[in-house]
Amino acid sequence: MKLGRFAGCRKAALFAVVLLLLALCSGAVWADKGVNSNPLAAQDVRVLADVSPVVNISGARYQTGGIALRNLAMGAITISGIPAGSTMKGAALYWAFTSLDQPVAGVHNKIQIRRLRPLPMGGNITVTGTLVGSGADPCWYGGSILIYRANVTSVVTGAGEYLVTLMPGATGSTAGEDPWAGGALLPFAEGASLVAIYRNDTEAMGNVLLYDAGLAGATFSGSLSYNLLSPVTGTAVRWDMAGEDGQIGGSVAAHPGTAFETGFLNATQVYGPGSTIGDSFWNGADGNPLPQLHDTHGIAISEPIGPATPIAVTHNANNDCLTPAFNVLLVIPSS
Questions:
Q1: Which H/E stretch holds residue 270?
Q2: d(CA 95, CA 119)
């Protein structure tokens, strides 16, 4: 009888351990599919070191665009706002994977891109990216988030539509499932964004400053703050950002407060409730209505900047789990 009772207790203990391990592996202990479920972790306050631009192109302007890629093999990024007759000066493509423990060389650091329009359609080009940042998975199934950047200047010819295609085997599924429904097939693709830099004789030109190193991969669910440094003295008149893993709630069901993130440049609120636009910059808009989970946003600003005058950026996540990919500024130099 004693042996039987001991065996029963041992089975119960093993069952409890199995349940705990399953919970830990699923991420259910601390996260709920992109939204932090730990009220203590929600108070995390991340302050990064000053962030310097990795690109500084003078006599230029830029436009951005993005596409969500969760459970998809490909997607098209639209770039608009570049006047006809403009000359391209550079283009950068960013993409990200999450819930990925170790990237596979030749799979995750590569991506294909081709111009769909204007016609004639361009050829499909495979580019190799540089890992510009990594960090904690934004509350899905653990592992890391990895953010890559590649030079695609030879492909981006101006305003138009550009198809990006993941390499075979880069993501767990390309069947287009709702990210919040059914099982998880790891790893996950997040999305891709383009920064297209150009010049012309019809618009006011400035310095395009692109930031990623020291910023990309800084996952947070409370607040994230950093200073954008500039070698140019003048006025920043536009700010764009891209990041992962914005959402409105669970699938197309909005949850109260989930997309209530707020953002500030110095003392000026630029997005979220209470701002002029009144909307979050982390609402998964690059993939609305589904799959969401990737954002590229931009807004006109007017902030002084210079070597001794950085722009202080603050993002408040409101319990969402978020990861920045890049920031970009257009600075009109002082005369």
A1: strand 268-271
A2: 25
